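Whiteboard transcription, Tuesday session. T.W. wrote the structure tokens on the left side:
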């Protein structure tokens, strides 16, 4: 039996993840998107990985700049996740009205997330429909205390539910 994209999508609904917003910038432009395919892969050196859909504005910007930021969202930030996933109608500029800050690379990071990581791409692995990036974490800022936003079975959850 051949595994289809829909079969894998249905299976992965049972995998619980945190929710992040990956951001990047190049020259005067900035982009960001909601991503749950994020993980730490090494402490020494400090490496993380994200997978971005090929051809998206954010993926194109990461390609051009070689840097990205990751903001881990808190349990009260489902609205930000929806905004950066493109589910909020009329949000042409996803950063409009949001407080951001920069660390080392200049990527915009979201002020109210739990933790933000500034990352520099060290490897990229293209697949048919996405690019897996391995990046060195060059700076970290803990921005607030709290619990993470959790995604399971196509819904947001809070820990302890």
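and on the right, the sequence the group agreed on:
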């Amino acid at each position: 039996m051949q595994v289809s994209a829909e079969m894998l999508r249905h299976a992965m609904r049972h995998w619980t993840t945190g929710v992040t917003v990956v951001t990047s910038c190049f020259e005067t432009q900035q982009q960001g998107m909601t991503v749950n395919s994020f993980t730490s892969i090494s402490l020494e050196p400090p490496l993380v990985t994200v997978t971005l859909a090929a051809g998206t504005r954010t993926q194109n910007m990461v390609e051009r700049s070689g840097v990205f930021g990751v903001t881990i969202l808190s349990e009260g930030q489902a609205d930000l996740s929806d905004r950066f996933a493109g589910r909020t109608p009329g949000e042409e500029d996803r950063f409009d009205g949001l407080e951001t800050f920069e660390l080392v690379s200049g990527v915009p990071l979201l002020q109210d997330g739990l933790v933000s990581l500034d990352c520099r791409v060290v490897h990229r692995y293209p697949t048919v429909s996405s690019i897996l990036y391995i990046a060195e974490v060059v700076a970290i800022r803990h921005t607030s205390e709290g619990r993470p936003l959790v995604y399971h079975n196509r819904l947001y959850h809070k820990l302890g539910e």
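Someone added at the bottom: Helices lie at 5-12, 57-65, 78-84.
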